Amino acid sequence: xxxxxxxxxxxxxxxxxxxxxxxxxxxxxxxxxxxxxxxxxxxxxxxxxxxxxxxxxxxxxxxxxxxxxxxxxxxxxxxxxxxxxxxxxxxxxxxxxxxxxxxxxxxxxxxxxxxxxxxxxxxxxxxxxxxxxxxxxxxxxxxxxxxxxxxxxxxxxxxxxxxxxxxxxxxxxxxxxxxxxxxxxxxxxxxxxxx
Length: 195
Hints:
single chain; about 200 residues; mainly alpha; Serine Threonine Protein Phosphatase 5, Tetratricopeptide repeat; 11 helices; about 0% strand
């Protein structure tokens, strides 16, 4: 896993350099836009600006309003302008997750984690994403990483009983899936360290 992360980090750095060059070139071709107040519902106004901070803030407000597709557009633009920001990739992944676009979320979370292997929000979102993609062992691995980094955050983020309930339900639907048995066994035997 460490070798995979190192390779991914090198890839991300290369991607960031290439993306930054393209974004910088585009920004150099136009005069800096005059920044006006951003309204959360006005995607076209925000998207015309080259201000990734305002794009992210407006996207975050749209998430709160459950306007996930519009938030996705703004987070994508913020990530394109600032490809080295783990926050923007994670926020974009959250917008994807809320729309059921788990494969896209997975890709963005890989980038966020490659940028910071200890970024707890991306790790916890990756656990949830992997679960929805039926990558149960991988989901459990990310879940354990979150617990090892911040047990309090893990307790607030994951309801252990709900997770066990969902896995038991999936086990009944997929009795041949050995990963589900493995995860259930570990969740039940490690109650002292897990939420």
